[in-house]
Design a protein that fits this description.
CATH class: Alpha Beta
Bound molecules: S-adenosylmethionine
Structural class: alpha/beta
Low-confidence stretches: 1-35, 219-229
Number of strands: 9
Number of domains: 1
Strand order of the largest sheet: 5-4-3-6-7-9-8
Radius of gyration: 17 Å
Oligomer: single chain
CATH topology: Rossmann fold
CATH superfamily: Vaccinia Virus protein VP39
Largest sheet: 7 strands, mixed
CATH architecture: 3-Layer(aba) Sandwich
Number of helices: 7
Mean pLDDT: 83
Length: 229
């Protein structure tokens, strides 16, 4: 199935390219993609600014609101289901969010094969598909390999935020993150807009599990705090 052509529309939106996730997955981590240079995706935006990623963005409620609240940042929503990609794109157009882009792509592929090290200020993974049955857990996107890629893609001082209703998934990620030197639990820097699933789960009174892990600066200080351009 062909997805993801990287051409620009008049709105600057990244269009699907002829590249299939299974082909990408066969590649080794770190191998560059022959169709798109590793440095390409930050250039989707009209101007250089800190990049914030919403991975598995769903209908894009979080990404669009965050982009609206922070016009000084570039917000990248990544989603693999086309109807949801279209919703995000509609929100981008209706709300004239020139700092929001959407990619129709598996976010694990983005992290593993298409991204530059130290290129993102924030990475949000909100309610990743939980695959709660033990035999299905292999399908979870947040594997150790992908978490390591998140760490690589974050700028020093940048953070990864996970929120889920699945305590088992959360515990697995917490354990994996603890094994990455230079990735430390951090205080929540403030209120974030709710995603669609967050609103749903909160309205049902479900317990939620979440944390923020910050990539160290290497010298023990947190130079790039959230919000600093
Ligand atoms: C449970 S929904 C959560 C949506 C949104 N983050 C929210 O909190 O409202 C999970 C979303 O992640 C998308 N998704 C799952 N795995 C993905 C992957 N590997 N790459 C891109 N999107 C993915 C699904 O299509 C779905 O839209």
């Amino acid at each position: 199935m062909a997805i993801a052509r990287r051409t620009r529309t008049t709105a600057g939106m990244c269009e699907p390219a002829e590249m299939s996730p299974p082909e990408l997955r066969k590649r080794e981590v770190g191998e560059s993609n022959p169709l798109v240079g590793l440095e390409c995706w930050p250039r989707m935006f009209l101007r250089p600014a800190p990049i914030v990623c919403d991975l598995g963005a769903g209908n894009g409620r979080f990404a669009a609101t965050y982009a609206e609240l922070h016009p000084e940042w570039n917000v990248l929503a990544v989603e693999r289901r086309l109807p949801r990609v279209r919703k995000i794109r509609r929100a981008q157009e209706l709300r004239r969010l020139s700092n929001l882009r959407v990619l129709w792509l598996g976010w694990d592929d983005l992290l593993l094969f298409w991204s530059q090290p130290e290129s993102c200020r924030e990475i949000h993974v909100l309610f990743p598909d939980p695959w709660p049955k033990r035999r299905h857990q292999i399908r979870r996107t947040l594997s150790m390999r992908v978490l390591t890629a998140i760490f690589r893609v974050l700028e020093p001082g940048g953070f990864f935020r996970l929120l889920t209703d699945d305590s088992g998934y959360y515990a697995t990620v917490e354990q994996a993150a603890a094994a990455l030197p230079g990735f430390g639990r951090s205080e929540d820097p403030g209120a974030f807009p709710e995603s669609q699933f967050e609103t749903i789960f909160r309205s049902r009174g479900c317990p939620l599990h979440g944390a923020i892990w910050r990539k160290s600066e290497g010298n023990g200080t947190e130079r790039k705090k959230r919000g600093a351009a």
